[in-house]
Amino acid sequence: MALGPIHCGSFLLLAATVLLVVASISAPVVDHISFLNIYNGGQESTFGVFGYCTNLNSGTCSPRGLGYDIATASNAMTNYTYVNNSLTNLTNALVLHPVAAGIAFLSFLIALCSDHVGFLFASLIAFVAFLVSLVAMIIDFVMFGIIRHEINSNTSASASFSTAIWLTLAATVVLFFASFIVCFECFGSRRRNRDQQYVGNGYASSGPWWRRNNKY
């Protein structure tokens, strides 16, 4: 059976949910999934939603929590002093990743179980998930971009974006398209029902008008 719009829309919403969930369980939950990696000699530090790991070789990770001092953590392995309280406060907004995942999953459930107007409601929720994910993505690139620039410009260490930030970008793009595909299914479902009613009244569903059978 070919995939219809309902299948495509639901699949995209589920895919976006999975991408955001994986990004949300980044370091220190899963230390090798991160938004930013810093390499210095044989050491590697990773930064995630709920904390960071400063030395993967020794398994040293911060406690899991909302918000952390990202500037101090990034300086721990580079001996470079960089203080930015705004970035520390901005790490609290990383919680938007699991929030966006939850909203996307809610939209997926509604799209999976709905018909007609339900698709429109699911589309609206998917668009809200897209906006939340978009804000989270912008924060990711701004905050971790600043740290990457400071490390690469002022130390011998190397900093680069990692898996989680690209997963968030992909999820944002997927949610954008999914919100419209699910919306289109609302109108497509109405048209199919109208065609079925037309056939049920004794008319052919396709072909030129002179070939359609009229029960009268």
Give a structural overview.
The protein is built from six helices and five strands. Helix 1 (5-24) runs antiparallel to helix 4 and helix 5 runs antiparallel to helix 6. It has one domain (5-190): Butyryl-CoA Dehydrogenase, subunit A, domain 3, CATH 1.20.140.150. The two termini are 35 Å apart. The model is unreliable at 1-6 and 190-200 (pLDDT under 50). The longest helix is centred in the middle third of the chain and has 38 residues, at 117-154. Strands 4-3-2-1-5 form a five-stranded antiparallel β-sheet. The protein is of the alpha+beta class and 216 residues long. The protein has helices at 5-24, 70-75, 85-90, 96-113, 117-154, 163-200, and strands at 36-40, 43-47, 52-55, 60-61, 158-161.
Uncertain residue segments: 1-6, 190-200
Class per helix and strand makeup: alpha+beta
**How many beta-strand segments?**
5
Computed Rg: 24 Å
Listing every helix as H and every strand as E from the N terminus to the C terminus, the arrangement reads HEEEEHHHHEH
Query: Span between N and C termini?
Result: 35 Å
CATH-assigned fold name: Butyryl-CoA Dehydrogenase, subunit A, domain 3
Using the coordinates above, name the CATH class: Mainly Alpha
Task: Indicate the mean pLDDT.
Answer: 83
| Number of structurally distinct domains | 1
Physical arrangement of strands within the biggest beta sheet: 4-3-2-1-5
Number of discrete helical segments = 6
Largest sheet: 5 strands, antiparallel
Helical content stands at 55-70%
- What is the 3D form? elongated
